[in-house]
Amino acid sequence: MRLMAKATLIAGVVCAAPALCADLPTKKPAPVPIPEPAIPSTWRFELTAYGWASSLAGNVGIRQLPTLPYYFSFGKVLEHLDGVFMGAATASNGTFIGGLDLVWARVSGDYTFEDPASRLFGVQASLKISEATATGFGGVRIPVGAPNLELYGILGARYFYTGASLTLAHPLVGFQPSVSRDKDWIDPVAGFVARYRIDPKWFINSEADIGGLSDSATGQVLAAVGYNWTSNIATTLGYRVLYAYERQDTGGNRIFRYQQWMYGPFVGLKFGF
Predict the structure, then answer these.
(1) How many angstroms separate the CA atoms of 247 and 181, rounded?
(2) Which of 21, 30, 205, 246 has its CA 20 to 30 A from that of 187?
(3) 33 part of a folded domain
(4) The whole model's pTM is what?
(5) Is 207 part of any domain?
(6) 200-211: pLDDT as tens digits
(7) What is the pLDDT of residues 86-114, one digit of tens each?
(8) How many angstroms separate the CA atoms of 94 and 206, rounded?
(9) Residue 244 maps to which CATH number?
(10) Domain assignment of residue 59, yes or no
(11) Is residue 34 part of a domain?
(12) Cα 211–236–231 angle (5° rounding)?
């Protein structure tokens, strides 16, 4: 009986040992970190190269010479065009938007003063105009009910550079035979940008702004219809009008007077990513 009791006791201890050991604290390996999935960026960037079949109309005056009006139809612009560059870039995430637009051009031609009250009436002159504009803006989306419409209110600035030179074909007493003037200025602007998706392929873009200071003013409006050939490439066709005005007077002397309209259709090639 004693032998059986001892055997039973030993067997019970042996059987209970694993359970006792299981309750003892042990050092466990650190859990393997679960990789977090990469959250795709909501920002979309677009680069656009475009050609603007613009006509030019305005007037320019330099120093003591009378203001000379001019007009270039698009056909004349091509005849007198010395160089041009146009491009734009935008970034948006559905809530915020930012953009930059660049235009540079140079035209030249011969003109005749046509004001009978001017001493230069009938005198021919050679006019050369080099100009550049750079418009930068940022904005926030305005909540509207249409699900396919993105409407942004924007604030920004437009930089202008104009270099104009006039050379008289027949110099007159009291007038310099050739005068030139370079001028640049910046106008604040405010407006809106709108994008409307007709369907996955077709869309409409529009933009308008206005601004200026005490001796300057600017404004533009454009609208375009676009087609998405792929998820990254699109083309647009639209119409654009850009206005600029600047006057500089010093001590009663009119040093620089400039006013110009640029208007016409444009076509663009857009790459988005």
Answers:
(1) 13
(2) 205
(3) no
(4) 0.75
(5) yes
(6) 999 999 999 999
(7) 999 999 998 999 999 999 998 887 767 66
(8) 16
(9) 2.40.128.90
(10) yes
(11) no
(12) 115
